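Students often ask why inverse folding is considered easier than folding. One informal answer: many sequences map to the same fold, so there is more than one right answer. In these notes we will look at a single instance of the problem. The structure comes first.
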């Protein structure tokens, strides 16, 4: 029996302040269960938002970002993948979606928080949550200085 995750929220503690996420278990139950499990297991503790594109999104969830070797950032995961659960939730500011490779069924732990309008991603990436608090932190992280290439 699958745990009912309706109403479960996760607080992301960042250098720009806390961000609170609520989940869309009705449209992406496997992605929600995966994210909540990883969160409860401490998988995300100490990870960084390694890809930042102002007006688009901030991406995190890679365990390799716990190390200083940024050449490996963006390549890590939990050791398993979750099949796509495409849905009708629009990619707009505050929506949480899973990052993946070119394979639609390759999502693992990396996720992104949409900072602007990104409707061109609709139907191609699994949306599984929304930011309900911490929009100032999202804006601060999206505007932080980055290395070339969005890292």
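Output (designed amino acids):
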């Amino acid at each position: 029996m699958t745990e009912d995750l309706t109403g479960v929220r996760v607080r992301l503690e960042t250098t720009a302040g806390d961000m609170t996420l609520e989940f869309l278990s009705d449209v992406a139950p496997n992605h929600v269960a995966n994210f909540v499990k990883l969160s409860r297991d401490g998988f995300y503790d100490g990870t960084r938002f390694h890809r930042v594109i102002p007006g688009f999104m901030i991406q995190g969830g890679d365990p390799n970002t716990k190390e200083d070797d940024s050449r490996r950032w963006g390549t890590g995961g939990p050791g398993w993948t979750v099949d796509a659960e495409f849905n009708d939730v629009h990619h707009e500011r505050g929506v949480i979606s899973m990052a993946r490779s070119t394979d639609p069924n390759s999502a693992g732990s990396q996720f992104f928080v949409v900072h602007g309008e990104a409707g061109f991603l609709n139907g191609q990436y699994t949306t599984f949550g929304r930011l309900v608090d911490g929009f100032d932190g999202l804006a601060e992280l999206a505007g932080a200085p980055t290395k070339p290439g969005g890292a």
